[in-house]
Amino acid sequence: MEKSAANYTVSTCDEVNSTGRLTLNARLSLTGSEISINELPAGIGVDFVHSHKQNEEVYIILAGEGYMFIDGDEFPVREGSVIRVAPEGQRCITAGKDSSLRFICIQTQSNSLQQFTMDDGMLNDVTPSWLK
Ligand code: ZN
């Protein structure tokens, strides 16, 4: 379903299966983060090490097994692993030899978070149909 209105955008991420990477920034008109959905086939990894100028990254492993390299450390990751990397962290990720690796990477400006959840959320006086 594709839909957008003043305060939301709905899209799909189906094609990540054929391209290996789908970035949501433009698709969802994101203003505070970049989010990518990634699928590395078994035995395939990113073929460069990178860091960032000001953005930290969170990797959320959704399925499969693989390895991360961060600042010379190498360690296994698997479904359920969550990894935060500081901007200057030198990182790389690969799927395992016998397992694909599906993950979300969220990139946000380090130290930009001012408040969240109950400090930022406000209750509104409207009701969706399933609560009536
Ligand atoms: Zn990055």
Radius of gyration: 17 Å
- What is the oligomer described by this structure? single chain
Strand content: 35-45%
Taking pLDDT < 50 over at least 5 consecutive residues as the criterion, the unreliable ranges are: none
Note the total helix count: 2
How do the SSEs run, as a string of H and E? EEHEHEEEEEE
Helix coverage percent:
under 10%
User: In whole angstroms, how far apart are the ends?
Assistant: 25 Å
E-strand count: 9
Description:
- The two termini are about 25 Å apart.
- The chain is mainly beta and about 130 residues long.
- Strands 3, 4, 5, 6, 7, 8 and 9 form a seven-stranded antiparallel beta sheet that branches.
- Helices cover about 5% and strands about 40% of the residues.
- The model has no long low-confidence stretch (mean pLDDT about 95).
- Bound molecules: zinc ion.
- Zinc ion binds next to loops.
Give a short summary of the structure.
This protein is mainly beta. Helices cover 6% and strands 42% of the residues.
Topology:
Elements lengths: L2 E3 L2 E3 L5 H4 L1 E3 L1 H4 L5 E7 L14 E16 L2 E6 L3 E4 L5 E5 L5 E9 L23
Antiparallel strand pairs: 1-2, 3-4, 4-9, 5-6, 5-7, 5-8, 5-9
This protein binds zinc ion.
